Task: structure prediction
Amino acid sequence: MKGIFKVLRSEAVKLRHSKLSSLLFISPLLSLSVGIMYNANSDMPWLEMYSMMALSHAILFLPLMTGIIGALMCRYEHANGGWKQTLALPISRTNLYVGKFLIICFMTFTMQLLFFLAVVAAGMFKGFASPMPIKEIATFVISGWIATLPLAALQLFFSTMWASFAAALTITVIFTLPNLLIIQSGDYGPYYPWAQPGLAMLPMSDSSMNTLGLNISLETLLFVIGGSFLVFFVTGLLYFQRKDVA
Amino acid sequence: MNMSDFIVQTKQLTKTYKGKIAVDQVNLQIQKGQIYGFLGSNGAGKTTTIRMLLGLIQPTDGEVHIFGKNLKKDKLSILRKIGSLVEYPSYYGHLNAIENLETIRRIIDVPKSRIDEVLAIVQLTADAKRPVKGYSLGMKQRLGIAAALLGSPELLVLDEPTNGLDPSGILEIRELIKSLPQQYGITVLVSSHLLSEVEQMATNVGIIQHGRMLFQDSIETLVQQAKQHIMLSVSEPERAVATLNAAGIRTNLESEGLLHCSYVPDTKIASAVHLLVHDGHDIYRITEKRESLEDIFLAMTREGGF
Amino acid sequence: MLTRAFSSDWLKLRHTWIVALVFLGPAGVVGLQAFNWGLRYDYLTDRHAGKLWETVMKDIHFLSVPALLLGITLVASMLAGMEHQHGSWKQTLALPIRRRTVYMSKWLVCQTLMLLACILLMAGTLLLGYLLGFGTDIPWDDLLARSYYPWLTAGPILALQLWLSVSTANQTIPLSTGIILSIMSLSAIDMPDWMPLKWPLLMKDSISTELSIALGVGTGLLVLLFSIIHFTRKDVS
Result:
């Protein structure tokens, strides 16, 4: 555990002066403008506005940004021969890998938090009469975050494997774009890892909150999200432990 | 000397970055057939000057004339006759050596056979069909030199060409550079931070420090700057020093009882020996010690000029 | 000179994923719609009976615009990236070639690759319609328009992305910008008519198709002109 903390602190220094943190603001800010411009006309203005804001954020931005952040995680190491320096340090590769993964999770969590604040701000700007359904919206946001974890794991795997930022990103784009169609499909959507953030964050007609209080059915959580997370993470870790460093 | 006699001539060439002076009023002069060693420590302004010679960056002030033409006006016709390797080799890692050279050949339009020729010159023929990303640093460096030679240039600009090469590689490159003026009439500008390297191949030297040109002349002139010293080892050092100084030959007593006279002509040495022998000293050893170029270079760069 | 530079740049595409991407993009778009139509064949053919070709083309167009913009982003970044990666700009620009030619050549390669993708998209559309048994009554005008007008009207985005990618070695900014633009294009229907993102959608109700093409090509060339001016004056490190 101590090793992981060392990694986290060292990674935090590397991220200083990088423009990575500004990326986290993009989607929440765009969503905020969507929320402000949208005129809700149902008797549940908060949820209606939230749905509009979550649409582009959850279906495209969240998986794509997870990909961008993941692809950026190893930029320093690839760019200036940093791998040989980092891996020659007295720290296990497992700790390093887990540390980098936790950073991605922290970043995506921050982005979700900012998105939540954007919803609050847009609602306050609109001055809705009804109180904000805090618990429901918070559930959507957290469910969305959990649904990004497999994507973060996969992207970290690609990011360690390929020096090219563009290559790592291309994969994300290729797999995210089909979301536009797949998310509409009740039969296939639940099995597609990239569609999970969208499905988890958008209020569906049948309020399918599970026993854990997430907007994800227990089967999906266990088999699709948990399963793909395990496969991606373990594959990536095994690869990283055996990786030859040039 | 007439301006057109120079292959390369810069006039008060200056480059400032955000108020910080990188190159300061440099007047570089290179004649045809010379191997011009451009010497300076890292960050002295060598690469910035070379980038300006190639039109990669704009001078803040001053002019560059190459082949008697103004670089600003005739950039393309000048560049057509220059081959260059700046700072570190440029390459496309996913392509092999032949394909890398082909990307350049398609622009400068030389016969395809030229690729095989330059690969043979830098001895990369055997590895020519491997992706360059798998090359060692030395091989990439040689590929860079091959790329510079591809267009059969009249002027070759090589920035630190022996960087990252092993001793035998350095020797090969040095011999190659030395052969270019004789065999093909190519003029060479080669930069380095190592005097020993420049000394072994250059005919002329320019020394730059903090963006300013400290020295520019033939290598012989630089060698002559090296002062000669005579060291004498005698049986009674203290008395000998007194004798010589009394006779008007300035002598110091160094450590371990050695006598030191700096920069004396042969006749003076002869009379000093005569004097000492006559005075009953035993002379064990007379050695000449010359200041090495390294010493001069260090003294020059430390003082910022003579 | 431009042809020479172009053939040099074209050679650099060897052994890269760029060409694969040009095939993968259209294949992905057509493939997704093949899934969509294949899985719901009875429902969709029933609902859109009589205008099957038109509907499948519309569906493909819906996906092809964001795919095209993302493709532009990635290809422009990869084209510039291989020059940035091992300091190749300094080698290329020390060759006897005008900087504007170097830049135009990159732009031309990028445009050609995108045109290639659009041709493949058209071929894919035809193949899909044929396989779905929509007959031979193909609305050619519609097909040509939906296949090539997005390419023409995406000119400003392509010029912008190429400029961003060439300007800095760090590709984070160009890639992020391109991705954001692509996503924004999905909601471009609600944007004002002067937004370049709206032009590839070919909305016939607002500005005419001819005007959006003229605007797209014109603005694209203008952005190209400005980026060439910037590129010719740039210091190369």
Summary: Chain A touches chain C through 27 residues (CB under 8 Å). Chain A has a mean pLDDT of 83. Residues 39-242 of chain A form one domain. Residues 103 and 177 of chain A are 25 Å apart (CA to CA).
